[in-house]
Each structure stands twice: as C-alpha cells, then as structure tokens.
Amino acid sequence: MEPFQYVHARSVGEAVGLLARHPGAEVIAGATDLTTLMRDGIRRPSHLIDVNGLALDEISALPDGGLRIGALCRNATDDQRIVRGFPALVEALRSGASPQIRNRATFGGNLLQRVRCPYYRQPEFACNRRDPGSGCAALDGDSSRHAILGTSGSCIAVHPSDCAVALQALDAEVVVRGPRGERRIPIDAFHRLPGRTPEREVMLRDDEIILAVELPGRASSAHSHYVKFRERASYAFALASAAVAVEVRGGTVRSARIALGGVAPKPWRARAAEHALLGRPFGKDAIDAAARAATKGAAPRPDNTYKVSLAQAVVQRALTELGGAR
Amino acid sequence: MTSRTEVPESGIGAPVNRVEARDKVTGSARYTADVRLRDMAHATVVTSTISAGRVRRIDTTRALAAPGVLTVITHRDRMPWRSTPADTGYLENRFPLADDKITYYGQHLAIVVAKNLEQSLHAASLVDIDYEVDASVPTLDEAMPDAYTANGRLIRPPWPQHLVLPPGADPQAALAGADVRTDSTYRVPHFSHVPLEPGAVVAEWSGGTLTLHDCSQDVHGHREVVAAVFGLPPERVRVLSPLVGGAFGNKTDVWGHSLLAAHAARVVRRPVKLVLSRKQVFTSTGHQPPIVQRIRLGAGREGRLAVILHDTVNATEMRGDRPEPAIISTASSYAAPVLAVDAKIAKVNIGPSISLRSPGDAPGSFALESAMDELSYRLGMDPLELRRRNHLNTDPLTGKPWSAKHLLQACELGAERFGWARRTAEPRSMREGGELVGYGMATAVRGEIPDRARAEVEIRADGTAQVRTATQEIGTGALTLVAQITAAGTGVPLGRVSVRAGDTNLPRTAGNAGSRTTGYTGSAVHLAAEKARRAAVRMAVTDPDSPLYGLADGEVEAADGRLFHRDDTKRGETYRALLARHDGKPVVAEASYTPRTSHAVATFGAHFTEVRIDPDLPRVRVTRHVAVFDVGRITNHKAARNQAQGGIVFGMGWALMEKLTPDPVSGRYVDAALTDYHIPVNADVPDIEVLFIDEPDTIAHPHGSKGMGEVVSVGVAASIANAVHHATGRRITDLPITPDKLVG
After folding, report:
1. Inter-chain Cβ pairs, chain A and chain B, closer than 8 A
2. Which helix (H) or strand (E) segment is B47 a member of?
C-alpha cells in the first residue's frame, strides 16, 4: 500500500474543491472496495477525501411519487418506502455482499465499485482497465465468469453490482456535483461500456461526487422484482441476475424495463426483452419470448456459453415470479 | 444430535463444552498472530509474480530508504541455511532465497522488516524486481503427456505407487473377461486448505536460542526441522503453538516464511512477526494438486467385483516429486479378486503441495465411489446392495483383519435414518416443487498411519490434575479430549483438570495430522493417567494412615477426586488428604504409547445425501445429509459431532464450489482470494445428521477410540456427485460441480 493523505471533508463544496485540486484524489465512504484495491496496489490515490458525515444519507420523497436516496445511504437500508415502492431494489441490495459489508457500503460507492475480474484485481496480469494499453489477460485466460454482452477486444469483465441492475430497471438518475454545479446522469448512461477505453468506467468526472440516486415515480416500479443466480446460496457475485419492472393494465403489458447483471461490463438494459413484452398479455408466451430476447446480441466465449441460458432463465424466473405475485 | 447409543452425561463420551470455548467466543483466546513482544519488528514477504524464470535483478534501494525499514533480505544475501532440504526433512525442496531461480508463482523472493506493519507493507511494494521469464507449464493437462512414476529419494510415500494384487495377476485379462465394465476418468482441481488463520510466526532469539511462536500441527516436528536448518541442537529451539485457527494439513510442516522470519530476527536483533496475507495463504502454504484418475471396474452380473484398476496422475512441483496417494485405500475398499493401482506425477510450475484433509482418500474416494455408483447402474442394482456384496473383512493390502469394522452396520443404520428405501433408482425420477431430487450414497475408509506419543499427568495435593503433552489445538477439541481422558483415568473432576499443550518443552506427541490425536495422543494420556492413579492408589494402600491401607490395588477405584474401596465406597479419602500426608508432593506419571500392529486399523463411514436442483437455474443444493461413522468409542459426542459436520461441510465445498484455477497462459492462480475461492457459507449447509457406531476398538488403542478428523470428509464428494447423477441423469466426473456443468 502506498502512503496517502487523508482529509475529512467538512462540506460537499470542500470535497469537490479537493478533488479538483488533487487529480490523484479519491472519495472514500464505506471503504468496502477501495481499501482492498489499495492493499492490492490496484488503486494508488494521493488523497482520500472522506465524505462520511456530509448529511448525504437521507431518503426523501419526490413530488412525482419517487424517492431521492442520498449517496451515503447504507446498502443495509430497510426503508419501507423502498421496500413497498421499489421492491427490486431492496431485493437486489439484500442479495449483495454480507450484512457486515452492507452496513458499511453506500449507494454512491456501490455504483462506483470496480470490476471483480481476477485479472484486473491482480496487478501481475495485463489489464487495459487498470493499466490502459497493457492488454487483456482474460482474453487468453479463464473467462468462465466473464461477460457475454457488451464486451470489446479490450475488456470482457462483468460489472459486479446488484443494486445498479435494479436501478436500471427502476429508471434511476444519478445526481452529481462538480465545480460547475449539479447535473443528472441517467443510470443507463452512468456506466460505460469498455470499447477502446475500458479505464473510463463511469460518466462521473474526476472532480465530481455523487450526491444522490433518484428513483422516479413509475407505475412499474412497485411491480418490480430481482432474481440473482450465483454459485453458492449467499455471499457471491451473480453469475446472472435480472431486475424486472413491469406495468400491467387490463392484463396487458404497458411498460417494461428489464436489466441483466453478471453478464455485461455494465448493468445491461435488455431492450429486446422489453419489446417482447410490450402490448402483450403478461403470461407465459410473452415471458418466454422476453427471456429468449434478453440475450440478443450475446457473444459468449467458449467457456461461458452457459451464461446465455442462465441469463434467459433469470429473466424468465423474475418475470414469472412477478406475474405470480400479481 | 443423535447417536445410536446413549450419550453419557459425564466421563468419556460426555458432550462437554471445549475447555477453551469461552476464551474463543469472548475473543480472549490468543493465537500466534496475537503474540506481541517488546521491540517486535514486522516483516512482509515479497513473492514472485511469474511462475517460471529467474530474478535478473532485484533492487532494494527504495525499500531500504523507506521509513522504518530495518532490513531487506534477498537471495543475494548470505543465507544461514545448513545442510540440505532432504537431510533436514524440510518439505520444500529448496531453502528460501537459496538462489535466483523461480519455479512457481508466489515463490518468496525477499523479506522486508520494518518497525511497524504498515512500513513493512509499504517497503515491500518498493522492492523492484526485474525478471527473466521462461515459458511455464501452467496446467496438469499440458504436463500429462510427460507423466512419469516418481522415483529417487525425493519422495516419501509409505505406500506403493504401483501394485498388482495378487502379484502376477493379469488385470487387463480380468477386465476383458468381466460381464460388466465401467471406464471413467475423474478430475479434481487444485484445492486449498483455506484455514481461517493464515500462516503466522513470531521469532525471537535470546543468546543462541530461538523461540518460535508458529502455527503448527506438530511443534516437535517443526523444531527438528528448524534446528537442523539453522544447524542448532534441538534444545536450542523452542516452538510454541498453543491455539491454531484451523489447519487441515497446511500447518503440518515448516514453511519458508517461518525460516525467513527466524533468520530476519537474528539479522535485526529484535523479535520479528510475520503474518502471511490471505493471498499468500494460497501460494505459500501448499495445496492439494490437481489429479486425473482413471478407474476401470469389472464385475459379474451378480454384482461381485472381478477387478479394479485405478490409475492416477497428479501435478507436482518442478523441484520435487510428490505423488498424491489417491490410490492409497483402493485395495482396502472392496473385495475384488484382482486389483491394479498406479500413481504417476507430472511436472507443473506450481508450489509444493502438502497433505490436505484426507490426503489420498478424499480425491481417491470421489473416483472409486463414483465408479461404484456407475457400476450399480450398469448392473441395475441398488448402490448400497453393491457395497454389501463386495464387503471386505480383511485388509488385502496388509493381509491382516481389521481391529474392528462395522461398516455394514453403519450402512444399514444410515440407510434407515435417511430413508434410502424411498429412492426410486431411475435418474430424474424424483421431483418436488419443480425441483429435481436426488439421493446418493458413498462409503468411506481411512487407514490409520501409526505414530508414537508421550504424555505426562500430574495429580496435585490441591486436588487438581494437570495433563502435559505437546499436542496442538487446531480446532478439533484436542485439549478437551486430553482433559476428559485425564479426568476419567485419575478420577479428578474434569473442571479441576488443566491442560498444557502446544510447546516443545512438553512431551512429544503425534502431530495433529493424519487423524492421530485421539488414537495416539489420547492413548498416551490414557496410559499416563492410569499410571498416575495407580501410583496414588499404591501410596494409599501402603500408608498406615490411609483408610485404604491394606487393600489390594485392584480393590481401589477413583472418582470425584477421591480414592475409595470398590465395594464400600464410603471407605476412602481424597487425593488432597492423601497427598497432604506425603509432603504435599504431586504424583507425576509419564507414559509413552506405541501401537501394536497385529491388526489393520482403520475408520469407516457411510454417507447419504439428498440434493435438490432447479433444472433451469441448476445450483446443487444439498438439502439433507446423514452420515454414520465407525471410529471406535466416542470421547466427546459434542466435539465428535461438530468435527463430523465440519468434515462433511469440507467435503461439500470440494464437491460443489472449491477450485483454484491456474491461468492457462501463465500458471498463476486467478482465484487466490476468498472472493473467488468459494467455500460453503452457512446458507449452503443443510441439516447434517451424524450418528456413531460408538463401539470401543480396544485392539486398536487401549482406550478404544480412534481418530476421526479425516474419515468424516472421505466419500462426501462422491455421495453428492452420485445424488446429482440420480437427480439429473448427469454423471459429473470433474469437481467441483458448478452450475455451468449442469446448464442446458
């Protein structure tokens, strides 16, 4: 681990100012991911800007029936407004990590967690995401847990978050602040696909911090569900997961948002699956079609073709359970 | 908690809490990494990031200039090692930092010592290494074509690597002539021990004497090696290991980091603490190598085996030959008139392997017990019936009868408790709630590896007793076991028995490895306690002031801290009273135990597993497991059940999720972290019912108890794999049985 300066910011403005002044600075909140990255020599921040205590942990109602969740709200939240109005989000949060980690981890940090690709996590391997231009050891290595959608020749890692997958299905927006003020980034635009620049993981600028995540009031959000499939019963990242939010009126699907986790370098919006549901009765035929469509465009590798059927199966399961719960 | 027999409320068998339980649950228990000494410095090892090549240049300038750094030691420094690895009994076939060559990822290249831990970690990151990289052999698959039979003095197996029984038989002809045949190849990956406690050591020199606090399953064994490596007489080395936070085999031998810490402590003239990182646990303290096993079975239509052929190849390190004894129990498992086993090795760029809980038998039983299940389907016979028909009463390997064997009884009992009769044989024939249900079973055998042990028991004038033996508490209940045996032997209440252990200043015992604690250390304690009691009885019956004066020794019994007449329990006196009249001096007795060898000694078990598998999201859920063990008399039903359940969970991890994956290009492990190296979490662990036959085996050991740490995890993986086959119709022959193997 490299020595670093630790600064406890007294205000959001001060935190943003520090980030702007020190290009090597990073924000620290729950510290569940950054400390392991620092110990392993993956991240070497010059400064750690501690934002804990900046009153960013509030959950408040929005006029449209939505919710604003402060960036420092812990992942262990059991706020009843989320439980009732946005069930997929609570299901996703509770399927992630362990209770101890959820007690520490924040919403903002969850969105900014780094990939779990073992080639990224071990500096002795080549990794374009960690060291741009160094290559991707996973391409010739073990890619059994890697992405089948949205990959590029420079990176095939999967995004590890459960929470962000649910946020995709709930059409969330990320509210950020930098030296030039606040702006809002739709969740689908917040995480980037690797393309040729996998090191640029999110749309957040280096001098911006996340203030909150906003969940708009949508009819589909209360009718949402998250299904995660993993190698053991708990405390493991998803091999495949699905968040679904479906608005059904008169037995017909009026709107649907479907997102996949564990199969792409970002929380993956499965638009073809959504289209397969729209305007159809919310029943087995439409669900089967949506599941099949969920992996449209998938380009699996020889050792991860199994993820195609897993991704379809989690979509099918999530929609079926959602239908059954109606 | 269930047992076939009654569980005693006190004495041998009583389910008493562990003597160190309170310390452990309150956090006051002290492990090696908790040792703090005055002026103690902290060390970090720097490890290689390549798996083959050499160190072209190692630059320590920046590290040495970093704050707090006391020294940085590399292969360029003169190392103090004496003799050779082979002559000192050092497991690795090269002393640490002996030269510039690198043969595996994670090999130690430097040790950095600083005033505090953070300084040493930081300085370690500043050691700049320029490598000359050679092509590596990253996987067993690449090495397989060059597999060979281990030879020369590097190997230390007490078992034959190639065997045909009866000698001169023609196994191929026997196979060709069999009515029914199976031929399958089974694979197990690199497995890691993953104890909670990483390797840790605190080394301190005083005068010319080295004190080593080291996590060890065998302090005396460690001392011998450390003394030899440093060229010291053994009495100048003291090794202490009072509590070990799990080991499973990876603390049986001295590792390079312990030698490096001891050397560094002498260089900096201060005590040095070194705790391996979690990642280093995967590369610095051994593993079980990957093994490919081919099993061919031939049988008659009536289900009697005609022949077993078992051929194995395991990966071994570049610097030494270490065959993994997966064939060790094949001959002792079933009544096949012809048997042929063969073990080969193949060189891979990996670190040294070491025994991992049930070396040989865990991987071997996965293959053999899976093959038996396959055969049962070929024969159209219940797998349990197939085992019955091939039962053995004499060990073909030694020609001796077993001291005790109740395997058939264990099978019947387990089958009944499990409800095996409800099983419909056809794969995929049992379903519930949309899930496939599978029942599987397997049997287990684990031969004992003889050892010797010594112990000392002292009965004191204050009415207490103390047992002293070097045994280590590695989490299995060893301290409680020796206390219980001491209490039973002396008649001093358990609450008044203290234990000293984990120290080379105490009598040497069997290492806490190879299931030897209960049988060997336990016997030595049993003999010492009996001897101490008899000495006290002798004192009493020859003491005119004793109420027991004049009685024959055999007429006196002991209980509740008191000696009394067998037929008139009121007549007697306490140890306290007796010893007070004899100057308050304690009665001390030492005993050593060497087992007899007139019989084959082994432990046995039967496993029954229920799995449930969602066909669309196929993760294997073990929903029920019943196991029955035949391990002699149970000394502590609580500790025994706990150890059995732990062993079964251990086997579940093997069967379903554990795997250390070498990168196919470089040979580096890609999953050397608990994030990726999955072991079962509580939510994976089902209802595990454990039963014991609980019949004393006094031919094996005088107190009738045998070690059970290994047999409990033997056969678990096969039992689960067989259940998976029954549920899905798929025979998974390569562990672990992860979802990707069941999809589609």
Report:
1. 91
2. strand B41-47
